[in-house]
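Protein in question kept in full:
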Amino acid sequence: SKSDSSSVHDQEKQAMRAYMTKRLVAKTIDVIIVASMLGLELFSFFGLAKAFLPIPGAAYLMLQFFYVGMPIIAVLTVLGYQAAFEASPVQATLGKFWLNLYVTNGDGENVRAEQVVFKTVLSLLPILALVGVYSYFYNTSLKYGMHLDAPTASVLAMTALGCIATFAALHILLRKEKKRQTVP
């Protein structure tokens, strides 16, 4: 009857909401863990930089490392966290593990580290684009002493909105028969 089919449909919607809530909470936990790791890396760097400040050559090297080395270390931290946990026998990051979620490929098998790295890079591309645009404008203002005017601010705001919307869209579900797969 109609009431039975609508009841099943409501149950499916409620189960999907619960599943998506679990995924959101797991992602939040993982972001907090990775942000803590990145904060510890920055705190350590600034401690070392302060120690090398009296030596002019070392201070210059530390400044150059901050612009080149720290972004590389940050990317390796994010990719390494995902790859190490999701490609392990546990098949889950800490946030997913605590909420009984796991990662498999389309055939239900363990994912390989390179698949996890590719998925993570693909899903982080909008955020990397946002960082790139902001870095360009920051570098330009440092080089030429330009100030943030209204057209530049609107470009930055629209870029941020577009990148964040794309990042969110990469984490939505495809269709009912592939409930566990995200767009990447």
Q: What stands out?
A: DSSP finds five helices and no strands in the chain.
